[in-house]
């Protein structure tokens, strides 16, 4: 899901940033072990703020990300959608959704290769 990638939730693609994140987790565990109550509260607040920032950015920029992804799509391309009943379908509503005015979350889906 594109939204998950923007929010940093895509765990299938490893990058150097993942290593940095892992280092931060180790450091946070050290802080929590050293000063359990104070540092744990501080870490939880920082994590919450980062999550809020990512969510807010995605909410504001989601339509722009969609436009950027579909700007070069040919006019006769099918794409996979998730139907309201949870099943997958294929649609060809022009330019792979480029002209969609109300981008629903089922258009965010990106297949993850394992």
Automatic annotation (TrEMBL):
Domain Duffy-antigen binding residues, every copy: 1-110
InterPro entries: Duffy-ag-bd_sf, Duffy-antigen-binding
Residues that span the membrane, as ranges: none
Position of the signal peptide: none
Pfam families reported in the protein's UniProt record: Duffy_binding
GO molecular function: host cell surface receptor binding
A Gene Ontology cellular-component term: membrane
Domain of life of the source: Eukaryota
Name of this chain's protein: Erythrocyte membrane protein
């Amino acid at each position: 899901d594109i939204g998950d990638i923007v929010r940093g939730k895509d765990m299938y693609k490893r990058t150097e940033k993942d290593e940095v994140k892992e280092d931060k987790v180790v450091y946070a565990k050290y802080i929590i072990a050293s000063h359990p109550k104070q540092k744990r509260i501080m870490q939880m607040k920082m994590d919450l703020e980062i999550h809020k920032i990512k969510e807010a950015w995605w909410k504001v920029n989601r339509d722009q990300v969609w436009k950027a992804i579909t700007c070069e799509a040919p006019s006769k391309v099918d794409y996979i959608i998730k139907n309201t009943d949870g099943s997958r379908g294929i649609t060809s509503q022009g330019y792979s959704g480029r002209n969609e005015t109300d981008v629903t979350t089922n258009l965010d889906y990106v297949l993850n290769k394992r």
